[in-house]
Amino acid sequence: MKILSAPLLALALALPLTACGERPQTNGNEETRLGQQVREATEEARKKMQDGNISISSDGAKIEIAPNGDLLINDSAVALNDSQRAIALRYRQQMIGIAQAGIEIGVQGANLGARAAGEAIKGVFSGNTDDIEKRVNAEADKIKASANKLCDQLPGLMATQQELAAAVPEFKPYAKMDQGDIDECRDGNIQI
What we know:
Blueprint: H1 6-14, H2 33-51, E1 54-56, E2 63-65, E3 71-73, E4 76-78, H3 82-126, H4 132-152, H5 154-167, H6 179-186
Antiparallel strand pairs: 1-2, 2-3, 3-4
Helix pairs in contact: 1-3, 2-3, 3-4, 3-5
């Protein structure tokens, strides 16, 4: 009998027991119960993003863009003309798109974790562990591809952020995204 690699076995043992009741999926693309629960939990976050202000992290300052394009710095609205507001709205939509892509990657990760746990436990009890790591790695590669697509959105976000900073001087001190952030995303360290 082949022994599972330590990381795969650790993953199987560390996941919530909820995943143990999963039936192996026939094509690997169906959503697990855990994935469904994560997706349902994130629906509220998605709605809040669409309907509420989007916060932009910045060293102690509170920067937000409202659904109507208002730019708020420390709860004070910055006067914007139509052109500036259009840029702010575009920036907001790009931020939402990236956040939603991140949420989707999280759902994919939950599905992978549940499947990996089920596969590993099934393999341990059946003695057939030969293909488990290969199947899990194939699914993990799909998640990496999704993460790369998220990273592909960052150059456009950075360009819009710079455009907004040029158009709205009050925003300029908070436009800190640079090529290093894009590179870190590619290295798996997403921090926007």
